[in-house]
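User: Hey, my collaborator sent me this sequence without any context and asked if I could get a structure. I don't really work with proteins. Can you help?
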Amino acid sequence: MERNLTSWYSPSLNKEMPIAVYGNYGFALLLIPTAAADYLEYERFQLMDSIAPFIDAGKVKVFSINSINNESWLNNNMDPRDKAIRHQQFNDYVFNEVVPFIRNNTSWETPIITCGASFGALHSANLFLKRPDIINGCIAMSGVYDLTEYTKGYFDDNVYFNSPIHYMPNLSDHHVLEQIRRSGHIHLVTGSGDHEDPDANRRFAGVLYSKNIWYELDIWGQEWRHDWPTWRAILPHYLGTRF
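Assistant: No problem. I've predicted the 3D structure and written it out in structure-token form, which is a compact way to encode the shape of the chain:
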């Protein structure tokens, strides 16, 4: 499996941001870390090993980025308004810097699918739903889609517009909705074991259903906990059967 590391100084975030790239060909899978983790988290926990056959076969090219959750929602020393602003800057980084980087390293026609586990699942779904014109779908593993789960009660416009369970019911822009509907790749996958929240996935699936948006809700059994063995099973399953 070919692996390349690079970085650049992000104007959106005003800091150096590294990225790991795995493989050479295939659609682009953009990995968003869990919680406060970094761009090599999926490698450290052997998720990259679990999907290596698909990378080596040229089915998928993976791009793994840093989170900045420890500079926003997980930083207990920040003013909540600043946390919300920092979160929006992360979105800008992905849309204005990471997506063009992926295009330049693949092609302008290559589909981009976001993917993440836990907090990364919320980010992966939110990034796609906000910009379906440049992102083509998501694989969201073990997520909740209510940002207030992480904001400790704080709520403003930046929270609302980054919390899919809040903004999606009110989304009425026909053009954006049609772009989302055309995706064919909205996969909400969760276990039912310890620390999983299948009901959160059912609620969000209901919102998508109410907007006539195709989605796949896949709830695995009680033996699948909120942990790496679950995600190491889910992602290769989806790469092998849905793409």
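In plain terms: The radius of gyration is 17 Å. You can pass these tokens on to your collaborator as they are.
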